[in-house]
Amino acid sequence: MNSLDFFNARLEATISPMDYLRSSKDNPEKYFLMDVRNGPSEVRSLTIKGARVIPEHDLPHRLEDIPKDKEIIVYCWDVWCNTAAKAAKILLEKGYQVKELTGGIASWREMNFPVSACTEGDTDKDACGC
Predict the structure, then answer these.
(1) So where does this one cross the membrane (predicted)?
(2) Strands 115-117, 46-48: pairing kind
(3) What share of the chain is helix, strand, coil (3-state, %, to 5)?
């Protein structure tokens, strides 16, 4: 693989927080944003506003919750985390169209983009997808 092929593949498989925010405002029905982070709920108490929370380890049992007619955007913790890549692989193997949000929730928060509080005990599960 040469450099051009690498960067084309990278751009095809990822979307930046700024590009996602802009594109989802222009076409909100196009995307299904998923927080796939694993770990205790207390460390996952913030999520990107509008994201559904489906931890990567639950993904094989929750495929019916994920629409096939939308582009799935997955994210995890940060650039060092590969949980979103693992989730993307599972979804791609099942025929979904998937991209990874670069930088995870850390990049999103660094840019002061909207987040929401989300706990597994929320009574309004539709608000955050817990």
Answers:
(1) none
(2) antiparallel
(3) 45, 20, 35
- With tokens 């929730």, the residue in question is 105
Residue 123 is given by DSSP the state S
pLDDT digits over 87-104, tens only? Answer: 999 999 999 999 999 999
- Looking at residue 45, its pLDDT comes to 85
Q: Which helix (H) or strand (E) holds 88?
A: helix 83-93
Q: Copy the structure tokens of residue 62.
A: 């929750």
Q: What number does CATH give the domain 3-128?
A: 3.40.250.10
Please indicate, yes or no, whether the overall pTM of this predicted structure exceeds 0.85: yes
Question: Which helix (H) or strand (E) is 24 found in, with range?
Answer: helix 17-26
Helix, strand counts (H, E) of the chain: 5, 7
Q: How many Å apart are CA 77 and CA 55, to the nearest integer?
A: 12
Q: Using CA atoms, how far apart are residues 119 and 130, in angstroms rounded to an integer?
A: 7
